[in-house]
Specification:
Blueprint: E1 5-12, E2 15-22, H1 26-46, H2 52-70, H3 78-98, H4 114-123, E3 146-153, H5 158-170, E4 175-182, E5 190-198, E6 212-215, H6 218-223, E7 236-240, E8 251-255, H7 267-277, H8 284-294, H9 297-309
Parallel strand pairs: 3-6, 6-7, 7-8
Antiparallel strand pairs: 1-2, 3-5, 4-5
Helix pairs in contact: 1-2, 5-8, 7-9, 8-9
Length: 313
């Protein structure tokens, strides 16, 4: 008895195809088409493969790999399987060749024009307020560019202290910049802030000749270990107790914050108080004004108390 063939309608990724097969092969063909469509849709959603032909090839490879891995394909029957796959592939190619070419834009690739879409989105946003304006109230402690490096570790509020130092510079009409370095891990690794305060415009934000280096933790110092050998005699190093710094020409000023019962998360802010009381970079008036701008209520009161009580020696 001969097998009768007829055209079977299958659907793959929202498109219909007519494939000729026998009645006995029909259930397998429909199931295969459904499985292939699911695999192709999965690949398309991943966004890693573009183009229907490439998606089909990737889906076919994945399915073949899964079949071989699961043992569904017998290596002894590989030639027979390859012949059947080639026959099905020819049938699909013949069917695709009869379809009219796609004209115009592919629906799933339709996107709004970027500029118009961006303007529509931003037009719905609430306008931000004017940026904070800080008036110059104090005289700066010098007429040249000052560079400061804070070397600490995660949890010491190094970045916040750097922001406060910059705000203090703004209260004296100085231009300021801040560059930070820290690990993406939480509460681990070095934390470093590079600050520049200058009466002139700052064109280059790299640190060339630090006026002060504040060494609060070994992790931060180790991260910038090669820098210490190039420091000149005019550089001041505030060295926290327990932190070792490489030998060099810079002048070292030890600070024992632990004996003053200052908690480690407050060392960075306390070191700014020491810097101000030594008359380097900023004054105590500039520092306190910066704290009043940065903090409010209880945090402000505690911060002011800290910078006022810290001893520079």
């Amino acid at each position: 008895m001969s097998k009768q063939s007829e055209a079977v309608k299958i659907q793959i990724m929202d498109k219909e195809y007519l494939v000729t097969c026998s009645d006995e092969e029909r259930p397998e063909l429909v199931a295969s088409a459904k499985h292939l469509s699911a695999k192709m849709s999965e690949i398309r959603k991943s966004g890693k493969v573009v183009g229907i032909d490439r998606i089909a090839v990737m889906a076919g490879l994945n399915m073949a790999h899964e079949a071989i891995k699961s043992g569904c394909i017998d290596t002894e029957d590989t030639q027979s399987t390859a012949s059947r796959l080639e026959h099905l592939n020819l049938q699909i190619e013949e069917t695709l060749a009869k379809l009219p070419p796609i004209e115009g834009q592919v629906p799933e690739n339709t996107r709004r024009e970027y500029g118009r879409h961006y303007r529509d989105l931003t037009g719905e946003l609430v306008p931000t307020g004017e940026p904070l304006k800080i008036d110059a109230r104090f005289q700066p402690l010098g007429d040249r560019r000052q560079e400061v490096i804070l070397l600490g570790s995660a949890g010491q509020r190094i970045i916040t202290a750097g922001e406060i130092l910059c705000v203090a510079g703004l209260t004296a009409g100085l231009n300021t910049t801040q560059k930070n370095e820290y690990n993406i891990t939480v509460l681990r690794g070095p934390s470093i802030s590079e600050l520049i305060l200058s009466p002139q415009e700052i064109d280059y934000t790299g640190i060339e000749d630090p006026s002060a280096v504040i060494a609060l933790d070994q992790e931060g110092v180790n991260r910038r270990r090669e820098m210490f050998g190039s420091l000149g005699s005019k550089t001041l190093i505030l060295q926290a107790t327990g932190v070792e710094v490489p030998a060099g020409k810079a002048r070292i000023h030890p600070i024992d914050l632990k004996s003053q019962k200052i908690k480690k998360p407050d060392w960075a802010l306390a070191s700014l108080g020491v810097l101000a009381k030594l008359g380097r970079i900023i004054s105590t008036d500039m520092l306190e004004a910066a704290l009043e701008i940065k903090f409010k209520d209880k945090i402000l009161a505690n911060s002011l108390e800290l910078v006022r009580m810290v001893k520079p020696d």
